[in-house]
Write a structure and sequence with these properties.
Layout (H helix, E strand, L loop, with lengths): L14 E7 L11 H16 L3 E6 L2 H13 L7 E5 L7 H4 L2 E5 L2 E8 L2 H4 L4 H4 L1 H7 L6 E9 L5 E3 L4 E5 H7 L5 H12 L3 E5 L17 E4 L3 E5 L9 H13 L9 E5 L6 E2 L2 E2 L8 E3 L2 E6 L5 H11 L4 E6 L1 H4 L10 E4 L4
Parallel strand pairs: 1-2, 2-3, 5-6, 8-9, 11-12, 16-17
Antiparallel strand pairs: 1-18, 4-5, 7-8, 10-11, 13-14, 15-16
Keywords: Hydrolase
Protein name: Agmatine deiminase family protein
Pfam family, one: PAD_porph
Length: about 350
């Protein structure tokens, strides 16, 4: 692997597949398994219209059940693959491989996964990338294990050397490290020229300590899409307003302001009085489409319009995600893209 050619691609670059893990009765989804299975079916149905999907399953019974559910919904099973391995939960954005692309292959970065700072058991999830590599499903790839806690949802790249992240999350994972130390490590491991830090932004119901993929995302052509809040009575208003000011002040490497695409604010989604983290910023870009979390909210269509403008030439597909935010994540959180050629 030629070190100098390695690059961290943007999500909108060509992909070979989307990696998922099927929910089952031994995951945290057990209490509402039927609802979340419906979301996964809708998600897979949307993906296979455009590309392949690779689904982790816990055992042969889970695979047989997933196959039956998907096939009964008339999904193109020729574009669906399965791999059997153990996992604690299904948040593949944070447990799957972060892939660097080189002229002669790929480097899979296997950072430590600690259950978002020790909040949940994560022993099997921490070994997921290694097990995927050992299964031989990746081509022309090497694995680099890095003893440093970092989740895929905590970072966002434009594919051209700029990384976007939040200080709240990285500081929570590494309280003894200075911003300068963390900045250098991220640039070195992820082959970035610079790190753009957001000091503001959070969502109630988010247990990731403010992952950037719930707040702000790069888009093609020097653009940033971000979750806005236009309700002065909402407890998020001041914090997301401060984040919007930070994003407005950011500049591209050549000194120009970014083109900005604020997303509308959905109505509060409550579960037994608990506010759930409904964010339109947690969308997934795939080949030819943007898959958008929908919350059965009047703002869903307005959010789709914003994403269509930010990602021209891609179809925006709404996927119902109210079931996912019950467990504090959404569409992007359960999905990890695999670059073209890796599968």
């Amino acid at each position: 692997m030629t070190e100098k050619t390695l690059r961290f691609p943007a999500e909108w670059e060509p992909q070979s597949a989307i990696l998922l893990a099927w929910p089952h009765a031994d995951t945290d989804w057990a209490e509402r398994l039927g609802e979340v299975e419906d979301t996964y079916i809708a998600h897979v149905a949307a993906i296979v219209r455009f590309q392949r999907v690779l689904i982790c399953v816990a055992d042969d019974d889970v695979e047989a059940y997933a196959r039956a559910r998907l096939a009964s919904n008339r999904i193109d099973m020729a574009r669906v693959g399965f791999i059997t391995l153990p996992y604690n939960d299904t948040w593949l954005r944070d447990t799957g491989p972060i892939t660097l692309v080189g002229d002669d292959g790929f480097e899979l970065l296997d950072f430590r996964f600690t259950g978002w700072g020790g909040k949940f058991e994560a022993g099997e999830d921490d070994r997921l990338v290694q097990r995927l590599q050992e299964a031989g499903i990746f081509s022309k790839s090497v694995l680099q294990s890095i003893d440093f806690a970092l989740e895929g949802g905590a970072i966002e790249t434009d594919g051209q050397g700029s990384l976007l992240t939040t200080w709240r999350c990285l500081h929570e994972r590494h309280p003894q490290a200075s911003r300068e130390e963390l900045d250098q490590r991220l640039r070195d491991w992820l082959r970035q020229d610079r790190v753009l830090w957001l000091d503001h932004g959070y969502l109630q119901g988010d247990d990731t300590d403010a992952h950037v993929d719930t707040l702000a995302r790069f888009a093609p052509g020097d653009a940033i899409v971000f979750q806005a809040c236009d309700d002065p009575a909402d407890p998020h208003h001041a914090e997301l307003g401060a984040m919007a000011d930070e994003i407005t002040a950011l500049c591209t490497p050549d000194g120009h302001p970014y083109r900005l695409f604020p997303l509308p604010w959905p109505k509060p989604v409550l579960d037994g009085g608990r506010r759930l983290a409904a964010s339109y910023a947690n969308y997934l870009v795939i080949n030819g489409a943007v898959l958008m979390p929908a919350y059965d909210d009047p703002a869903d269509d307005a959010a789709a319009d914003v994403l269509a403008e930010a990602h021209p030439g891609r179809e925006v597909v709404q996927v119902p995600c109210r079931s996912l935010i019950w467990q504090n994540g959404s569409l992007h959180c359960i999905s990890m893209q695999l670059p073209a050629g890796l599968i």
